[in-house]
Design a protein that fits this description.
Blueprint (H helix, E strand, L loop, with lengths): L28 H17 L5 H9 L6 H22 L7 H4 L1 E4 L2 E4 L4 H17 L3 H33 L16 H25 L4 E2 L2 E2 L6 H10 L3 H10 L2 H10 L40 E3 L2 H9 L4 E7 L5 E7 L7 E6 L12 E3 H18 L5 E3 L1 H4 L7 H9 L1 H6 L3 E5 L12 H9 L8 H7 L4 E4 L4 E3 H9 L7 H6 L2 H12 L13 H9 L11 H8 L5 H5 L5 H8 L56 E3 L6 E3 L3 E7 L10 E7 L15 H16 L4 E4 L13 E4 L7
Helix pairs in contact: 1-2, 1-6, 2-6, 3-6, 3-7, 6-7, 16-20, 17-22, 22-24
């Protein structure tokens, strides 16, 4: 995994390459070849194979000394075997030795030379292809694709076995890494998957090959051994879930090697849905900068009495940082729009010490760190004095002034949108060096507490300039994003062949952060859909603030949402939208019970039981049919429900005896001839649940209800589990 290590970093562990002892009972190469063939055959059987069969096929090779033989066979087939098949000895003589590290009598695997070998292979294979006919080139490329796909099937199947094996091994405490009989197998599998991902990446860029294992792109985050290691080392379950659900293999390994400052927190109360360690409900006093002095510096208080008249007059207070001759800092309040029109909005997670629930104040050492960054920004850009706006200082915490606090919340959208810049302060990004590569910046942000909070979505998405505090000064994130998009980064071509870190971090930075300056202006509800989709994995200490945050991020007037009871805020948010975000219809989880709004989820964030679906496109693609219209998604004026124009499948009941469902079953009629329908079974997990839900639908049809399944896209590849079962109240010809 050395090809994925951050600059000058040492590998956190090494994968041993151990030759098994020779004995008469040792399995032969043919036996293991038969095992791999059996795994592929078992995969092709699909649902007809039992879980016991899937498990037993590996278990019989993991008992006693056979474990060492299995690990050796895996590495020979899927590590060195893949290298040999792709590179060939004629292209790189002595290649095997380059991937072994010898330390005394011990031998370990290494990928330090992989980027160089891939670069040499790129030149070699292009020369070979130029001298071949079109048919010969096609045969060669298809042979490489078949090899990679075949290997991916076996490695993915083994990951299921390991995941099942590790699932019940976790302790409530943090034990040291235990040496178990299955540990070598997990490490061998890890090495094979990491190498396979690198080769798939290189073949994709050089040969245009897209490798698939089953229905998913090859081995996306199939590393159960690394997951178990992270759990034992004390990683937050929420961070692990984020990395495994979104990241590719190379991004996941890179993130693990980087590590995170959040390992210092207590994550015993955390879950995959929420990092409880980042939730700050009550913080009586400001926290000091870790490692700065003795932590005994004085607090700096915001001039609340000067700010209250500004807020009461409908204005927004900003604060100028003044420094006395003795080095003591103080804050002076100004009204935004007067002489001090420029300010930097500070965006942070309260867990990093800038939040306080009892007073509007900040530790002097914390303010000094901010002041140094503001001074550097002013010096670099030769700008007039910049003030700051920060929620912990500029939004009154005293409940006596709750009405003024609500007024500031209503202005949050404009505050962050109109700032000279937004500057992020997070414990993880403060470890970044000035010359940190883009992939490290992106991964630090991705694993940060800042990117996990609900409020920080709008703080990081609205302004056209997002600055990130690093170890010494700040990073202009948008400038670095543009560099990466234009391929102006320090990575050589060799490195770019072996991983996809740049593109992975670009994908996250642009879409998950919602950087407005990289979005093409859109119409309708697409911006709202992107916002709702981007916040689905974020959390808040106050779950009832979800609708307020979404409304503020979309620039809606949130006054009515603030005034609504918590249980009515989602309904109020929907009523305030000019056009309903269409992906809310396809978001799973509990629904509202209000008549006319029963299609809407109670929440679109995972920690509250919801999960926002992917955004729908502005227009249905005409390449699969004749319809090319913008989907309509609006509230019915009479409050009966939702007005939509999307593809659908109409459900009708039939009286002929089906198999296993009593007297009646369901037939289907397409509302539009350009959509494929793959059967109701795709909707539900398991035969029992499928039969139960089918009977419920039949009952509703018997009552005369007009039932259809709304589909989100005009694409044959979509299955019914993405659809929404609804009752049609009215139809039009348009």
């Amino acid at each position: 995994m050395e090809h994925l290590l951050p600059h000058n970093a040492r590998p956190p562990f090494r994968v041993p390459y151990t030759c098994p002892p020779k004995d008469s009972e040792a399995p032969t190469t043919d036996e293991y070849q038969a095992l791999f063939v059996e795994v592929r055959a078992l995969q092709s059987r699909g649902a007809s194979a039992t879980m016991q069969e899937h498990y037993e096929i590996w278990l019989k090779h993991c008992r006693g000394p056979r474990m060492v033989h299995l690990c050796f066979a895996l590495l020979n087939k899927f590590f060195f075997g893949q290298l040999g098949c792709l590179f060939g000895e004629e292209a790189n003589p002595g290649m095997v030795e380059d991937f072994c590290l010898f330390e005394g009598e011990d031998v370990y695997l290494t990928t330090a030379s992989l980027p160089w070998h891939l670069s040499e292979w790129q030149r070699y294979i292009r020369n070979v292809l130029q001298g071949e006919s079109e048919e010969e080139r096609k045969i060669r490329i298809n042979t490489i694709r078949a090899m990679l796909e075949s290997n991916a099937i076996v490695l993915r199947h083994l990951s299921w076995f390991l995941d099942y094996t590790y699932s019940d091994l976790m302790s409530a405490v943090r034990p040291k890494m235990q040496q178990r009989t299955d540990e070598p197998l997990g490490m061998a599998h890890f090495a094979c998957v990491v190498l396979h991902q690198a080769l798939v990446q290189a073949c994709g860029r050089v040969l245009g090959i897209e490798v698939r294992a089953g229905n998913a792109l090859s081995l996306r985050s199939e590393l159960p051994w690394l997951k178990r290691r992270m759990q034992i080392e004390g990683w937050c379950p929420y961070t692990i879930w984020k990395l495994y659900s979104v990241s590719n293999v190379d991004e996941l390994v890179y993130g693990y090697c980087l590590g995170t400052k959040r390992l210092q927190q207590d994550h015993s109360r955390c879950s995959e849905a929420v990092c409880a360690a980042n939730n700050v409900v009550n913080q009586d006093s400001p926290m000091h900068v870790p490692g700065e002095g003795n932590g005994d510096c004085m607090d700096v208080h915001a001039p609340v009495l000067k700010m209250l008249p500004i807020m009461a007059d409908g204005g927004v207070p900003v604060l100028q940082i003044n420094k006395a001759e003795n080095g003591r800092l103080s804050l002076v309040a100004h009204k935004l729009g007067d002489e001090h029109a420029e300010y930097v909005a500070i965006s942070h997670a309260w867990v990093d010490g800038l939040g306080c629930t009892t007073m509007n104040s900040i530790a002097h050492c914390q303010l000094e760190r901010i002041a140094n960054r503001i001074a550097a920004l002013q010096l670099t850009e030769k700008h007039v004095t910049l003030c700051i706006w920060m929620d912990t200082l500029c939004v009154p915490v005293n409940h006596t002034f709750s009405h003024l606090r609500d007024l500031q919340v209503q202005r949050m959208h404009q505050i962050y949108k109109n700032a000279y810049a937004v500057m992020v302060l997070d414990g993880d990004t403060l470890t970044l060096h000035p010359d940190a590569p883009f992939e490290e910046i992106g991964m630090r942000l991705y694993m940060s507490a800042w990117s996990s909070r609900l409020w920080t979505y709008q703080e990081g998405s609205l302004n056209r300039r997002l600055l990130v505090m690093n170890k010494e000064s700040y990073i202009d994130l948008d400038f670095r994003i543009n560099q990466a998009r234009d391929h102006e980064y320090a990575d050589t071509t060799q490195m770019a062949l072996s991983h996809n870190l740049i593109d992975g971090m670009l994908r996250w930075a642009v879409f998950s952060l919602g950087r407005a300056c990289f979005h093409v202006p859109t119409e309708g509800s697409l911006d709202a859909q992107h916002a709702i989709h981007a916040i689905r994995d974020r959390t808040s200490s106050r779950p009832d603030s979800e609708a307020i945050i979404i409304g503020s991020a979309l620039g809606l007037d949130v006054k009515s949402i603030l005034e609504a009871p918590p249980e009515e805020r989602m309904a109020t948010l929907i009523g305030a939208m000019p056009r309903v975000a269409a992906n809310m219809l396809f978001s799973p989880g509990p629904r509202l019970t209000t008549p006319g709004l029963r299609w809407s989820p109670r929440s679109v964030i995972r920690s509250q039981g919801g999960y926002a679906a992917n955004p729908l496109r502005l227009k249905m693609s005409p390449d699969r049919g004749e319809v090319n219209v913008q989907p309509i998604c609006e509230l019915d004026r009479e409050g009966r429900g939702l007005l939509i124009s999307l593809p659908a499948v109409r459900l009708r009941q039939m009286n002929r005896p089906p198999r296993g469902l009593g007297r009646k079953t369901i037939s289907f009629e397409m509302l539009g001839r350009h959509y494929a329908f793959n059967g109701l079974d795709a909707e539900f997990d398991g035969k029992d649940k499928n039969a139960l839900c089918t009977k419920e639908i039949i009952t509703m049809l018997d009552r005369g209800k007009n039932m259809v399944i709304i589909l989100p896209e005009s694409d044959f590849s979509y299955r019914l589990y993405t659809g929404a079962l609804v009752e049609v109240l009215e139809e039009t010809e348009e």
